[in-house]
Design a protein that fits this description.
68 residues, alpha+beta, Alpha-Beta Plaits, two-stranded antiparallel sheet, 3 helices, 2 strands, 16% strand
Length: 68
């Protein structure tokens, strides 16, 4: 599953705004934070099978600088 498909399937109002290389930027409702974290972490860490784990770091902020 893709992140967009999962967000739509679960009826979330949060939206992915931008992809910059390996970073994704979302406009997120605070009430959807935990569910969106789970979707993003699961989709990103399982995008392909490798012999090493894919580590997903998630930052939250009012702007891109605060989220880093």
């Amino acid at each position: 599953m893709t992140i967009d498909i999962e967000i739509t399937r679960k009826g979330l109002k949060s939206k992915m705004l931008l992809q910059v290389h390996d970073e994704l930027i979302f406009d997120m409702l605070k009430s959807e934070e935990q569910e969106l974290r789970e979707i993003v972490n699961d989709c990103m860490s399982n995008v392909c099978k490798l012999s090493v784990p894919l580590v997903v770091d998630i930052g939250i902020g009012d702007n891109w600088l605060q989220a880093h």
